[in-house]
Every structure is written in C-alpha cells, then in structure tokens.
Amino acid sequence: MTKLSMHEQLPFDEDATASPVSTGDLPRPDEVRAMVTEAYERYRANVDGHVADYIPVLAKASPSWFGISVVGVSGKSFEIGDVATTFSIQSVSKPFVFALVCDAIGYEEARQRLGVNSTGFPFDSLMAVELNVDRTMNPLVNAGAMAATSLAPGATAAEKWERIRDGLSRFAGRELSVDEEVYVSESATNLRNQGIAHLLESYGRLYFDPDQATDIYTRQCSLGVTVHDLAVMAATLANGGVNPLTGEEVVGRGVCRRVLAVMATAGLYELSGDWLYEIGVPGKSGVSGGIVTVSPGKGSLATFSPPLDPAGNSVRGQLATKYLAERLGLNLFSSAAASRD
Ligand code: GLN
Known about the structure:
- It is a single chain.
- The chain has helices at 6-9, 29-43, 93-105, 107-114, 126-135, 142-150, 157-172, 180-187, 191-202, 210-221, 227-238, 253-266, 272-278, 315-328, and strands at 67-72, 77-81, 87-88, 224-225, 283-285, 290-295, 299-304.
- The chain contains 14 helices and 7 strands.
- By secondary structure, the chain is α+β, with helices and mostly antiparallel strands.
- The strands form 2 sheets. Strands 2-1-7-6-5 form a 5-stranded antiparallel β-sheet, sandwiched between helices.
- The chain has one domain: DD-peptidase/beta-lactamase superfamily (Beta-lactamase).
- Glutamine binds next to loops.
C-alpha cells in the first residue's frame, strides 16, 4: 500500500491564497457552499485507499461514497454528496463518550484513570519507539476508549449502554440507534478488543466487567449516523458543549476544550501529528470512513468516504478537510501579520 502524502496531493500554495485566519466566523453561507462544492468536485474522482474489511460487513461499503457536511455554531449548515447514507460511527464515537465520561466524573479524574497523552512513554523511551502504535494510552485509541466506555455512569451494562446511546444522541440532536448488521459482524470478529479489555483488567485500568465493557463499546461503534449527524456532534464541541441545533447543553465548556485537546494530539492515530501540521484543528476519524473536525467557536466539518489510508483514515476525507480548512479559515495556528501604521 502506498503511503499517501497529503502534501504531494495538494500542490496549491496556501501562502499565495488569501487564507482566512483562525479568528472570527465562518465565511458567508454562499461562500461556504461554493467552497464545499469545489472540495467535493475536486476529490470525488480520487480512487486511493482501501475500504476496511477486518469487520466483514464494512467491506460492503461502496468506495465511491463521499459526503461533506459543514455546521456552523449558528446552526446553519451546508452539505453535499452522499449525505443520506447511514454508516456506523465507529471510532468517531470515542471523543464523545470521553466527553460524557468527563462530564460525569470530572475531567481531572478522567485524566487520571484514562490518560491523555499520545504515547504514554517518557521522552527517552526506547519502548515508545518500538511500541508507539499499540501502547498509546488515551481515550481515542481502543484500549483507552474501552476504559472510557467502562466508566460510563450506571451500575449495570444496560444502564451504561443507555447512558452512552442517549448522550451520543444528544450530541447529534436526534435519537441514534444501533446498526444491528454491523454490531453482529463486529461482535463476531472482535477478539482483539476482547483481549485488550482483559489485559487492561489485569492492570487495573478497566472499570467494569471486560466482556460487558467490550460489548458496550462494540454497540457504541455500531451506532448508525449520517455525515450531517457527525457534523452536528462536532459542532456541539465547537460551541462550548451546547448543541447548536437543539440548544441543549450536552457537556460543560471545561470538558469541551479538554476533549478537543486530546483530539488534537491523538484523533488521527499515528498520523495525528501530520494532521495537526497540515490541517491544524482537532479531528477524529473512524474506520467506516467518517472524519470530524472541530473549529472552536466557528463550527465543524464532517466528511464521509470509506476508502482508508494505511493508518485507517479516510483518504478523500483528509484531502477535502485539508482543502476546506484552508479556505474556511479553520486552522487554529494560522495567522497573518498585523498591519503597521
Ligand atoms: N470498532 C472499531 C474497532 O474497535 C473502531 C475502530 C476505528 O474506527 N478505527 O476496531
């Protein structure tokens, strides 16, 4: 598999395009519409990447599916492409469950019990070099995500699951339900996650029965969403935890910014550094092809396209997000020199 370099694929020079800087608002709705349409047309013909098949049912996804949705903190939205297609939320659920857990137990306790670093190893660790991919410990990779799921409030598996389903639904602003076909397929093939859960249990880093925690996590990953749902969920994180469509406060402001901090360092797995370098906003990808990006105080961008790069991130999604982050002024690190009188 060729490693895709976003830089090679995006020859435009952002210094030459008058990129909006990171302060202020999203561009006007007609400008957003034009830019999102342009990004869609530009990358829809891209055929790089492979649809995930380690969860058998995911292999049924069409490689040509491609949808983009932008939701501003004002609640205004624009979307294009396969926006009615429902897919399983997968790892995009992780920051939202982490947010719910932080809100329930406090972000300081969540940090202590889950960890919030990229590698979890000291600066001079040889182990970090050897084991970086598998031993990261934060709530956005499987081990930490299952530990976060195990911390969801509730005495029983049913109570914990309902708390997660309800919480993710409040982020989305509509009732979400499990895609049973994905749940059954993933449950039959998730031995690795079961192993991780038992290993965590042995280290005292899982906070509920390992088999039940794995099951709740698998349901959580199987929730069906559209690209618009993902954008609304992400827009809630861009809006201090208040869903811009329903007006409901789903999580507190303090939780919100800490969740975004972890997304910035770990949302795109081992390519999180490349993502931050190129795109400059907190993001989270999932193996069914979704990516959310959050621009604090402005809004969100969600993309859906199943073909993935070797790290498990949607190829078209990354390209379209990079293109739009420049044009919509999402990059948090972007500045322009102040005028001197
Ligand atoms: N449910 C998937 C798993 O645990 C989620 C992975 C992903 O989206 N990257 O493998």
